[in-house]
Write the structure tokens for this entry.
Amino acid sequence: MGGNKSATSALLLLLLLSGILHPETIQLGSGCQEAERKALLQFKQSLRDPSGQLSSWVGEDCCSWSGVSCNNRTASVIKLNLNNPFRDSFGSFEDDAGHELGGEISPSLLQLKDLEYLDLSMNNFTGFQVPEFIGSLKELRYLNLSGSFFSGTIPQTLGNLSNLLYLDLNNFLDQSNQIDLEWLSGLSSLVYFNLGGADLSKAGAYWLEVFNKLHSFVELHLPNCNLPSLPLSFPSLNFASLQVLDLSNNDFNSTTPHWLFNITSLLCLDLGSNDLQGDIPDGFASLNSLQELDLSGNSFLGGQLSRNLGKLCNLRTMILSRNNISSEVSDFLDGLSECTNSILLEKLELRFNQFTGILPISLGSLKNLRHLVLWQNSFLGSIPPSIGNLTLLKELYLASNQMNGQKISDSYQHL
């Protein structure tokens, strides 16, 4: 699921307050400590740089080099941003051949005593392990190694980074090893963690206990992790600050656990592609701050989309595709239409289900709707004229239903 704007803004504010991104602490061209300049040159020498990304690393002032930022008072290096801008998290090496950094990470980085920010994401370090010494960069608050395809496994020494606030390890390994989580216990300040694509199949049910001990989480991303189970009960939940939870693509093959509904701080919840079964619980209605909900690709066979879910008045995105749900949508939409504030829903995606009945007039009350995807269902009747009220609509998919063939009426012409 795409990042929620409100949650992302809150996280950025937290990072700014911590000093990681604070513009007053960063200045280019303010001089350079000689020992750190030499350390950066040793680091450069150890890397493969086919596109010359580090070609600006010449001269005496390392604070003016590309990707390097210094403290404006001490001239010490505090930020090293060497991510590959030519590849996003879904890109392949072929897409950006010749642009990625590679090779061995030099221990000369240990000379950067005040380094707070290190980003090596979207590069290609295949054949090289994450060095143990990274755990000795004690001032690090931001570490991003996502999409860099290191070999081996996560070094236990990462658990020494007690000041770390942001850790992104999404798809950073070559997937050859299973991962344990013991090292996480030392990261007591962590607010953002992404371990997407890691193999946690041996973690057992204790994986939730590990994360539950870290009370500061704002965002937790664990998609495609082969998590072995989703505990149905968990009495001592400590996720009071959690706003974003992504557990998608783990194939839990269970019912939806009710402890999820106690995380009332959630703004974004992605449980897509988990083979969750049974009815869609009314308990989701207790997450009244929720703005994004993705339950696609599960097995809510014959489940009901109840009026209680319509009480999620802050919802902006709801995705229920590929579930074979066979209820009507009128109760849910009627519930939304009763929201006292303006209905905020922008995206409603219900494709590949067995929704039936006619589309209710209340559909036209979703004035902020931009994407309405209803194809491959069993809707009956005709398109309600009230859909003409959806003046912000950009996408409308109604194909492969059992609706009457008709011309688009005058009330829809301006959509």
